[in-house]
Amino acid sequence: MDFNVKKFVKDAGAALSRVVQITEETLGTSEKTELDAHFEHLAERANATKTWTEKILRNMEAMLTPNPGNRIEDFFYEKIDKRKPNRLSNLEYVGIDMIEAGNDFGPGIAYGSALIKVGHCQQKLGQIERDFIGTAANCYIQPLRKFLDGEMKTISKEMAILESKRLDLDSCKRRVRKARSMLGQQSAERELRVAQSEFDRQAEITKLLLEGVSSSQAGHLRCLHEFVEAQTRHYAQCHATMQELQRELAGLPGASFHPTTSINSTEPVENGQERARVICDYEARDEEELSVSQNEVISVREIPGDEDYLLGFRGNQRGRVPKVFLEILSYQ
Known about the structure:
The protein has 7 helices and 5 strands, in the order αααααααβββββ. A 5-stranded antiparallel β-sheet has the order 4-3-2-1-5, with no helix packed on it. It starts with a helix and ends with a strand. Keywords: SH3 domain.
């Protein structure tokens, strides 16, 4: 019991000394021990990493789960360590209604059949979207959240301890300056040496943690690459699904819908060539390339050994065009 009382009194005294030190620093009547420039740089970088990671994480969560209520629900499920509900996406709900409407109108008529096909497509897109959200959460969101909840919380805690040690050190320096008797000065100097040792030790611990932020950023970079790959697969799957739907709708009896693959072009298609629609404008960078305009349909063929370009033909003009600017329409 006596030990606890002594500890309580000691802690209270230390807290009071820190308050006095902060007050005098604010008033400009006491000096403040400054950390070295390298340490300050590490601390600023860590704070910037924390701030931007929090912003990116918030926006990523909002992008993948736009409904705030669903985000709150998911948060509570994570806290109680229970599996999240397997809720349908908006696309899947639309798909269900379209399928039911198509069956009601009758799958034997063009509109009913089209509704059913589009509905199944929306359901497939919804599943693709949910798969992407799950992958993005695993490969990017969870590592960022783990970094904030783990490493950054530890750094913040150690920085707070360092600030307390710094206040204790400066309080000891103040007492040494104010000590009048030889005995009082010797006692104050002993306390100063202990405070300096504790401050130096805590500064070294905190510095090592701050230096580890670089390794965390390298890990975040790998996670970002994985996220981009997942997003690329997601959009590629969506694009392929929509192209398949266009072909199915164009094949319906009496359908007046014609996909972009039916765009006519006056350009003849020779053996080994294919038709391609230009997705967006492209300005040739040299004489070997061909300038093209959005929605223009040209003839193209593969360039042996070149995975990034196709050889485009327009009348007597010819030149290389990046594949990413083209959508193949017909295969010969």
